[in-house]
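A.,

Following up on our hallway conversation. Structure tokens first:
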């Protein structure tokens, strides 16, 4: 079990390194999420989709397992709700908050599930563990609405705001 946990950490670290290398090659706006797949035990897995996009919430995603892995059941979710999608994958809905800056990570949607296939094998005194990545497709986003202060008109030059006629003073752009 300890070896399996270490493998999960190594797999997660490898995915993070690959994502970081790809992030350097691609503009931030081209990378709306980061995906981490964890092997929790022989048949228990976790997929985490983190929002790295500062301009939108992640509302939903579909995760498709790699060949050879069959999802049996969704056992839990954080940040939303997830279910089997009827075609061998997992569909999740929720609301992962946007990141606060380029290169930052916002909220995440996490799904725990059980699956069969790709179990480690033991041969010639060594365990062989098979990587699990799969594919993720963001299926819904919600754009961040920038606050506007258009509820009051801008005062004309020399005009003062009064109870009878409210207005705001225009400020010069810097």
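Then the amino acids I'd put at each of the 174 positions:
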């Amino acid at each position: 079990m300890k070896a399996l946990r270490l493998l999960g950490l190594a797999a997660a670290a490898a995915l993070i390194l690959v994502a970081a290398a790809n992030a350097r090659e691609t503009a931030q706006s081209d990378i709306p999420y980061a995906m981490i797949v964890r092997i929790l035990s022989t048949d228990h897995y976790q997929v985490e989709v983190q929002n790295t996009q500062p301009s939108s919430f992640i509302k939903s995603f579909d995760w498709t397992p790699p060949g050879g892995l069959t999802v049996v059941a969704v056992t839990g979710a954080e940040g939303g709700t997830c279910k089997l999608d009827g075609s061998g994958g997992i569909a999740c809905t929720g609301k992962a908050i946007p990141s606060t800056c380029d290169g930052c990570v916002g909220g995440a949607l996490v799904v725990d599930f059980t699956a069969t296939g790709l179990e480690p094998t033991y041969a010639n005194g060594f365990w062989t563990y098979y990587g699990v990545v799969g594919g993720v497709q963001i299926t819904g986003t919600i754009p961040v609405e920038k606050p506007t202060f258009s509820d009051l008109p801008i005062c004309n030059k020399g005009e003062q705001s009064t109870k009878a006629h409210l207005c705001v003073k225009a400020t010069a752009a810097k």
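Residues 2-143 form a domain with the Immunoglobulin-like fold (CATH 2.60.40). Curious whether your intuition agrees with the design.

B.
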